[in-house]
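INFO  loader      accepted 1 record
INFO  loader      residues=204
INFO  predictor   begin
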Amino acid sequence: MEHNRVQEGIMEALSAAVEFRSEESGEHVKRIRDMTKYLLTYTTLGEGISPYEAEQIAEAAMLHDVGKIAVPDTILNKPGRLTAEEYEIMKMHTIQGARLLEKIPQFKEMPLFHYAYDIARHHHERWDGRGYPDGLKGGEISLWAQIVSLVDAYDALVSHRVYKEAYDGDAAVRMILDGACGVFNDRLLGCFLSQEKEIRKLYR
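INFO  predictor   done
INFO  writer      dumping tokens
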């Protein structure tokens, strides 16, 4: 119980810090959590994963962008397209997030640390190896990092951001399938598409 309270406290503090720094709504991280848990619960992606592990992974998914705490406001909340230099700085949020989580001694002892660290560092890796920061390819990328990568892309498309208007769900799906958001595992895409209409209800 004590571990759970400490974990919840750390999670709340880090989530609040990211929300304070970024103009993205705190609802974003909650949707990432809910979509991750939904896919692990209602598709074959959850095979071999216990309900407890699925819960831990979903909670860890909320910290995927914790490294944005280290990104300057001028880049984080820029209303227009990032320059090449700004984009390189933005990409560092993956490494910064993993480092930050690693520096919290109590958090390293928590059950979800492994998932949170991996997701923070690797949710921008791509199935074809052209992601960042480590250029992981295919099965080198953990299932949970792959799931968060996809649901994060979907949420970004269907949500209003400082640099873009929201797309509707159908347009978002087309863009994901057309490769506008990177390359994803076919199995992951199939599971996501089978539940997308249900997932869309999270936005009502």
